[in-house]
Design goal:
There is one protein chain. The longest helix is centred in the middle third of the chain and has 15 residues. It is built from five helices and 18 strands. With about 300 residues, the chain is an alpha+beta fold. Strands 1, 3, 6, 17 and 18 form a five-stranded antiparallel beta sheet that branches. Strands 14-13-12-11-15 form a five-stranded antiparallel beta sheet, covered by helices on one side. Strands 4-5-2-16 form a four-stranded antiparallel beta sheet, with no helix packed on it.
Length: about 300
């Protein structure tokens, strides 16, 4: 997932995106059902004008929602194939502003604060650290951003986001999977998904409810870290703050708010929101490779 960003002052009224995944095999294989998370996630700031998902060879598509309200498409294939192409084309209307103002509840303007019993129960695992930290390395690192016994909540989260990108050098990474937060801190480099996971886990260590987001960014100027071409997939995070709700943070680009971000799915764990996942029946060595092409336009 690579980051990109619009230059300051540019609005995207009706952005569109095309995401094409191509898998190649050395021989015809039987394609088992594939799980697709490609339909943009609608919200107050994101209105989906049109969306189409197609596959070659032809597939029967069924639709469902997961526990987070993301749209999950299942593609079921009837024929063998040596090439699989899955394409998603969508057009949206974005209402996010570039410099948002958040109406944080008075009870949560200063950290530490307490979530209400209802919020705490509903956040559940989203507010619990997901990775082992036996020596407290991540906890101690996250606590460095807490300035005294009472700290401005939004300033703390901004500092944590910026601190993530200062501690970790962005580096594109093509291999599958995500580094653990401790691996990312130790290595000092990572992809956007690694930075998003580190930031999310650090926020949870501090007691915040947090979730991972996958989606797209658009950067015609290609001035942001890792931007390439007209658009790219990306990962970022959202933190739940009473009054304001879910606030978007992109630690890779040190940005706040969802301006020019197109969310596809949210989850507790980034492994839950892979755009395309599936398997096949055939020779162990039949898989020849996969390519992903993303085009985001305004």
């Amino acid at each position: 997932m690579e980051p990109a960003r619009l230059p300051a002052g540019v609005a995207v009224d009706h952005p569109g995106h095309q995401h094409t995944t191509t898998c190649r095999f050395d021989e015809p294989v039987g394609l088992l059902p594939h799980r697709l998370m490609l339909r943009p996630r609608e919200s107050r700031d994101v209105r989906l004008l049109s969306s189409r998902i197609s596959a070659s060879p032809d597939a029967v598509l069924s639709w469902a929602s997961d526990v987070f309200g993301n749209t999950v498409t299942t593609a079921t294939f009837a024929t063998k194939a040596s090439t699989l192409v899955i394409s998603s084309v969508a057009k949206l209307q974005l209402a996010s502003v570039e410099w948002p103002i958040f109406d944080i509840a008075v009870s949560a303007t200063s950290y530490p604060f307490f979530y209400s019993d209802h919020d705490w129960a509903d956040l559940g695992a989203l507010a619990s650290p997901q990775f082992a930290d036996p020596e407290g390395t991540l906890r101690n690192w996250a606590r460095m951003f807490v300035r005294g016994s009472q700290t401005d909540t939004l300033a703390l989260l901004k500092d944590l986001s910026v601190g993530t990108s200062e501690a970790v050098r962005y580096q594109s990474r093509d291999e599958e999977g995500t580094q653990t937060p401790l691996e990312t801190l130790s290595r000092g480099w990572g992809s956007c998904r690694d930075l998003a996971v580190l930031f999310t886990e650090a926020a949870r260590v501090l007691g915040f409810g947090a979730r991972i987001v996958s989606g797209y960014l658009y950067s015609p100027s290609q001035q942001s870290a890792g931007s390439g071409g007209a658009g790219s997939t990306h990962a970022w995070a959202e933190i739940f703050v009473p009054g304001a709700g879910w606030i978007t943070f992109d630690p890779t680009n040190r940005s706040l708010g969802g301006f020019n971000l197109v969310p596809i799915a949210v989850a507790r764990d980034i492994r839950q929101i892979a755009p395309v996942s599936g398997s096949y029946i055939g020779s162990t060595h039949a898989f020849a490779g996969m390519s992903v092409e993303v085009l985001v336009t305004s």
